[in-house]
Design a protein that fits this description.
Blueprint: H1 5-8, H2 13-34, H3 48-68, H4 72-76, H5 78-95, E1 97-99, E2 102-108, E3 111-113, H6 115-132, H7 141-160, H8 164-170, H9 174-179, H10 184-203, H11 205-223, H12 230-253, H13 257-267, H14 273-282, H15 285-296, H16 308-311, H17 323-355, H18 360-384, H19 402-420
Antiparallel strand pairs: 1-2, 2-3
Amino acid sequence: MNLNRSNSFQLDWIAVIIFTALVVFGYFNILSASNTGEFTSYIDTTKPYGKQLLFIMGSLILIATILSVEAKFYERFASILYIGSILSLIGLFIAGKQINGATSWYDFGGITLQPSEFAKFATALALAKFISDLQTNIKNPLDQFKAGVLVALPAVLILFQNDAGSTIVFGSLFFVFYREGISQYYLFFAVFLTILGISTLKFSAIITNVAIASLLIFYQLFLKRKKRKFKVTVIAFICSITLSFGIQWAYNEVLQKHQQDRIGLWLRLEKDPVKLESMKRNISYNLNESEKAIRSGGVFGKGFMEGTRTKGKFVPEQHTDYIFSTVGEEWGFFGSSVLVILFVSLILRIIYLAEQHKSQFSRIYGYGVASILFAHFLINIGMVMGLIPTIGIPLPFFSYGGSGLWAFTILVFIFLKLDSNRLNVW
């Protein structure tokens, strides 16, 4: 380790201030959501808010460590960190602890760690290392495949541990590929696949493909000028059939019952009113109570530790993935807007700083950081408000938990360390 004092004061203090505001705001919401009965002490380690305070202190140690290490370390050892994260994910199949149906934690005498959270920054580093290598041309299909494997490997391991939420986050690294110049056809394909999937589940694969066939015939007869592209149209239709029936099969045969129910509720697939009401009381109980808590907050909220639904513990485990419902009830639309502004400001600030870098490695990693934060922020708040299916994913710096807080702290401050040295020639 090399203490670099001259560069430690070149930190982007705007990003640091936003980070601090999010952590502090998050702590007080955890305090409110997890407080049962009369409040006695901030450092009551039998309560989640007391433990979270210890996690925050631990994150300060992590920050000091990250900033004291030479910036080049993170590029040189990106591959080692990535391999270590992969091994930690594989180890869960042998010594992992199952919590809420997911085998995603190591238990060290009562202290649990979730390797999937740390795998995110390790993957972002490895991806930045690979793409920035002089031997790599990201516009080359083979290099695109290799980069895709880097991202897919931890995602698949996490999926096998029944943690679909964390798996989806790795998909956000697609924005890194897009920024570095891959074809726009990938973006069009991603949008098409999303629309195809929703349509298939909502209306069936047969109806979806009839509609697509009609559009392709109309295109072939009236819009297309070059007849030699007929083969492309046929291939597109065959791919559409294959994908739609594959999506339908995966939904029925691969997804577990609770995952099917959550997607079904989101897309309103269930038509039986009796069964639908039963599903709402069970599968979407947390969501319904969360929405009620947010609505009850009004414009300015009920006040800190004055949320009746929060105090009544209507939302189970509200201090974890559903922490945003506490914000909505106690701080109202105003406080929720402040939270959204803080997250958006941090993400945009990271993107802005990334674009200032001459180092491709730092720029790519910066986009990786922004992508991961954006995915967590968008999915968590969308989930709590019922805009997307319920997925177990934490709100960065807000949701209770040491693994999440430490992993996001490492994710952000490695980039800030790299940014502090952006004027240096590597």
